[in-house]
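Example record used in the benchmark description.
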Amino acid sequence: MSETTPHPLLPYLHDTVGGNLRSLVSYDRTDATVHYVREDVRASYTEEELAAIVGDVRLEGVGKPYQEGLYEHGPLVCSVRCFERGVEFQFVQSDTQGTVVALERGVFPDVDSFVEACRERLPAEV
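Model output (C-alpha cells):
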C-alpha cells in the first residue's frame, strides 16, 4: 500500500471539511494509495487493519456491475456508510477502481439527523 501521494480531491476536502477529514484512500485492481490520514486516526490502526479495510472497500467495486443491474437507480456512483464516529463515502469509479473519503460525524448535520431519526424509529432488536 502506497502512502501520502497527492490526490486532486484533497484540496477540496481540506477547504470544505477541514479538520473533519479522517482519511482519503484510493484503490485500483493491484494497489491502494493512502493520500491522507489524520494523525489520531492513523494511530488507531495497524498496517494489517488498514489492509483489511482496503480489502473490504474493494468489494464494493467488484459488486458495482451486479448492483447496477439489480436496481433501477442508474449507475452506482457513491455508497455511504455511517458509523458512530465517522461517515465513509465510497466513490466507485469502476469495478476495479474507487476512492474512499472518511469524515467525522457531524460534518453534514442534515444527514446525521436523518440517520438518527430513522434509527430511533426502527423496531428493537429481537
